[in-house]
Amino acid sequence: xxxxxxxxxxxxxxxxxxxxxxxxxxxxxxxxxxxxxxxxxxxxxxxxxxxxxxxxxxxxxxxxxxxxxxxxxxxxxxxxxxxxxxxxxxxxxxxxxxxxxxxx
Length: 104
Fold this sequence. Notes:
Blueprint: H1 35-50, H2 52-71, H3 84-103
């Protein structure tokens, strides 16, 4: 456990509780952790290895998450498409394309 681990009850260098969903800006004196780049690489490897099955899985997972968030009131996303209706349409289209690729 690190000093910034929420289970330790400790705080970051700024005196704020550790929040893994923070903006990614490191606390003063802390190096930037490019975790998202590792996540992107992992997703790319899974898509490469599993092909359309991975695309289908991630599309369905994303669609379910955005559907739940939209029902809870989210209308604007941090996604490049911004509008959650567009994000849902995009993820639905990806799922359909993946199914077609699996069948054909």
